[in-house]
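Reader question, answered in our methods column.
A reader sent in the components of a multi-part assembly and asked whether the whole thing could be modeled at once rather than chain by chain. We filled in our standard form and ran it. Here is what they sent:
COMPLEX SIZE: two components
ENTRIES:
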Amino acid sequence: MNGLAFFLFLVIVALTLVITYYASKRTKTTSDFYTADSSLTGWQNGLAIAGDYMSAASFLGIAGMIALAGFDGFFYSIGFLVAYLVVLYIVAEPLRNLGKYTMADMIAARFDDKKVRGVAALNTIAISTFYMIAQLVGAGGLIKLLLGLDYIYSVLIVGILMTVYVVFGGMTATSWVQIIKAVLLMVGTFIISIIVFAKFDFSIAKMFHEMKTATPLGDAFLNPGNKFKNPLDTISLNLALVLGTAGLPHILIRFFTVKDAPTARKSVVYATWVIGIFYVLTIFLGFGAAAFVGHDNIVAADPAGNMAAPLLAEALGGDFLFAFVAAVAFATILAVVAGLVLSAASAFAHDFYSHILRRGQATEKEQMLAARWASVGVSVLSILLALFAQKMNVAFLVSLAFAVAASANLPTIVFTIFWRRFNTTGAITGMLVGLISALLLVFFSPNVWSPQPGAAIFVGEPLFKLANPGIISIPLGFIGAIIGTLVSSKKADEKKYTEIVVKANTGIGRV
Amino acid sequence: MAVKKQSFAEQAVVDYEAIAQSASFRGLIREKKAFIIPATFFFFAFYLILPILTSYSKVLNAPAIGPVSWAWLFAFAQFAMTWALCILYSKRAAKFDDIVEQVKQEAKEGGNA
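And here is the structure of the entire assembly that came back:
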């Protein structure tokens, strides 16, 4: 065990618990709990979005993928960033104007139907859970590598901490954990990138030139096609990346933490700058790891390449930088899982309990209690699942979350704001078709089935050849919503749509 | 801010139909559509051309500037595009906000009459 790394872990834990203590004193109402009373500024929320988004998959995963596969790893960086244009242009402002605590609020603002709210909440819980298990499994593996703790203890530590943040500090604590993590991550990434760039004499040309001989791939390292060989699979993945973000519940709930639509827009713009700069720097992380750690050492530490960034820090800056980057990676996981717990818990407590079960009649105190218990429940469930999922491929769970988000949530969000004829049946069929088709296609995909024992969960020939279902399931989600609308005898409420258009575009009458 | 929020919430009936029909609101929607629809088509196409070109051809593997190939330049262009479209939208949105203020003002006057 690395003593310095352990010390920095403790500092981060202490810091986040202090924040949680102060946040808990301010968390008295459901509005405090779910949205920090919508009191965040554009900058704060922008950083929190960035903190929520730059998950371990981004920081550790992309750096490793670029180090091992060159250009192909960079596809993730591009897709994750361009996705923010979809968020900025289509989703952020109407969502802020129509919703209160959850994504389901927005759809329920147009369709006054418990079923719609229920299905939307179901999607939120499904997506958050896949994403959370992925993060927890990653966290377990990472802490095991960094501190030498057993997988079970690692998952328990992260799980208990995330529960404490959310249950006691609600959205205020969660947001500040995300903000601090975003700043730490940017600082760490920046330092490593500068050192890497200095080693190449601050010359892009020299860096690219030397990379041609630095890896076993040779010249091919700099060209696309090392990792993604099937054209349809590449396009399918890119579609899910660019459209998934706008349907991710833990990102969507971040737009309720600001006071109005212009501030929501500003926070997306700030987030886009921070995230964009970070993803540009992933090139230095990846190239640096390939050149100064070496392919064999990266694979020896972790076959998927997830240790590339911490190993690079160690190679460049010794124990201190390694300890710092390891602690940042830990903070990264804490911040992201806290956001996920909050999004799943709000879907349970706000949508299922308060609106469906209690028909909006629960008192403020009962709602608060429900929200806190839901957070405990979600945490316990995801910790248990993560303990069983230890051997699962993390990338598969994350790709599943993105594909479900793009296929199940996005069509309904878009049609709710833009399509006059869209009706309740369409909303329900759209969400269910997207959810089920994405799940089924992944279940029959090479992620789950492989003829090679040990390469996937089951041994056998996959029925569906693509690793990512996006290219089929996203259109199916849209088609499901359209067909559901057209076959339904129920006519769309035109007056309601007019009201929604006015509200979404101006914020008039917002609760 | 809080006061303003309250006044709309307390206003029992908002005539959404009238607002939707007003010239200022229709102008807002027209301005927004004129920007968002073409911009969305553009960035979506620009984004998808990269994976399509890299998976069905090798043209982007040719060197562009020294050892840096066209694929990397195209990839960096995606970043530049995202930031540029962000700035552009922020500028346009300031104008949208002004129109929204106007719509709100008219709604308030009309609603109380």
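What stands out: The two ends of chain A are 52 Å apart (CA to CA). The CA atoms of residues 60 and 322 of chain A lie 13 Å apart.
Send us your own complexes using the same form.
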